[in-house]
Structures are given as structure tokens and as C-alpha cells.
Amino acid sequence: MALFSSQEYLSSAVRLPSPAKTNDCSVFTALGHRRTIRDISPAKLPPQIISNLLWAAFGVNRPENKFGVSGRTAASASNSQEIDLYVAQKDGIYLYDAGKNLLQPVVSGDLRSAALTPGQHSIDAEAPLTIIFVADTHRLTATRGYKDAGLEDPEVQKAYCYVDTGLIAGNVYLYAAAEGLAAWFHNCDKDRLAKALGLRSTQRVLFAQSVGYPDGA
Ligand SMILES: Cc1cc2nc3c(=O)[nH]c(=O)nc-3n(C[C@H](O)[C@H](O)[C@H](O)COP(=O)(O)O)c2cc1C
């Protein structure tokens, strides 16, 4: 396991294909299929599906507003967009850059076990992709959106970060249901991940969500 140097970090970014419609499932039908599926095949997801999944989760869906901030597929407190999606795959963990539609490598090595709920190892989870939700509270106080007084209060900050994570996770569940994929929102080894990712003092690992093909499908 090694953090990438800044040179490697910039040179080895994985460009994702543009998000594109792959099926015509209605929101209503997707809601009918929405559920947690924990038995996930280790088979890799194609780049187009990864791109669509991350775009559905928290991609850019409209141009910059009058404050110079692009709109996203999930709401966030004061539009601070304080949740980053780190993506754990077999070869390492990447940071989703929604604006550039790419995955920036952060740390090499298979850390997917750290992205599982500690103590829940009876489940043989080898999902090809696990999203790790990381909040940066600095972005709440530094938002260019409407600033409400609560943004400075640590308790309110915590609530906003969890709510904003839940909104993204809901999008992931819905996209997975529409695409016939398995999705599973779960806890994770926050300390191990925070160390591995070299997080700043304002960043916190909150939850994780695994996605892949349903096992045996
Ligand atoms: C905040 C939260 C934490 C969760 N943590 C775990 C977890 O650590 N392990 C797990 O197997 N499932 C976890 N889940 C998934 C729930 O157990 C699951 O959503 C619930 O049983 C309802 O099932 P459904 O999603 O199929 O409707 C979590 C869900 C939420 C919303």
C-alpha cells in the first residue's frame, strides 16, 4: 500500500466515458426494485457503468450558477458539496472528480476489506467497487452558497454531512436498482481508511456503499 506521489497522481488519472443512458427504466420501476443486496459478485463493472453510477451518485448535472458553482445530482447543505466519493477497487482507492469526470488515484493496493463493516466478516464481500463517503467540514464553512448560522456549529455540521451522504447513497441505490446491480450501504473501518487515504484534519470517513453484479445473476 502506498500513497501516490503528486506526479503519479496527476499522470495516472483514469478518464471515465461520458455518462450515457443505458436503459429506460422509470424512477417508479427503480423504486420498486430498490433493496440492499449483500451477495455481490467480484466481477468488474465496465467503465461506462462506473461512470453512470458515479454521475447518478453525485455527478455534475447543470452548469455553474451565479455563485460559480456547478449543480450536482444530490442536494447538499448550502450547496457546499462537502462529500467526496472515494472509490475502492482491487488495485487501489481513487477520488471521483465529478467536474472532470475522472478517477484520481490516491492509494494503491487492495483496501476493500477496510471499506467493510468491522466485525461483519461473515459476509464474503468482494464487491468490485465500494464508494467511501468522506466529508470535509471545511467546505461547509467556506461554501459559496447561502450561509446559515448552523454551518459553524459542529453538531449541525455533523447532521448536514450525514444527511448529504444519505442523499447520495439514495441515488446509488436507485441507479443500481434501475441497472439490475446489487448495492449495499454499510459501515466501514473509518480509522484504517482515514490513515490509508492520508485525510486532512477537517475530513472524516462516514460510511461506505458496495456495488457490483448480484452474485449468481
Ligand atoms: C445508516 C445505515 C447503516 C447501515 N449499516 C449497515 C452495515 O453496517 N451492515 C449491513 O449489512 N447493512 C447496513 N445497512 C443496510 C441496512 O441494514 C438495510 O438498508 C436495511 O436492512 C433495510 O434493507 P433494504 O435496504 O433492503 O430495504 C445500513 C443502512 C443504513 C441506512
Structure, described:
The protein is an alpha+beta fold and 217 residues long. It has one domain: 3-Layer(aba) Sandwich (NADH Oxidase), CATH 3.40.109.10. It contains 6 helices and 10 strands, in the order βαβααββββββααβαβ. The strands form 2 sheets. Strands 1, 2, 5, 6, 7, 8, 9 and 10 form an 8-stranded antiparallel β-sheet that branches. A hairpin with an 8-residue loop joins β3 and β4. The longest helix is centred in the C-terminal third of the chain and has 26 residues. The two termini are 32 Å apart. Flavin mononucleotide binds next to β9.
Query: For the record, what is the CATH homologous superfamily label?
Result: NADH Oxidase
| Terminal CA distance | 32 Å
CATH topology: NADH Oxidase
- Mean pLDDT reading: 91
Q: Compute the number of strand runs.
A: 10
Individual helix count? 6
Query: What is the subunit arrangement here?
Result: single chain
Largest sheet: 8 strands, antiparallel
Brief digest:
The chain contains six helices and ten strands, in the order βαβααββββββααβαβ.
Write the SSE topology:
Elements: E1 2-3, H1 6-11, E2 14-15, H2 27-33, H3 47-58, E3 60-62, E4 71-72, E5 83-89, E6 92-97, E7 102-108, E8 129-136, H4 137-141, H5 154-179, E9 182-186, H6 190-197, E10 203-212
Helix pairs in contact: 2-5, 3-5
Bound molecules: flavin mononucleotide.
Flavin mononucleotide is lined by residues 35-36, 38, 117, 120, 185-187.
Main attributes?
alpha+beta, binds flavin mononucleotide, two-stranded antiparallel ribbon, 217 residues, 29% helix, NADH Oxidase, globular
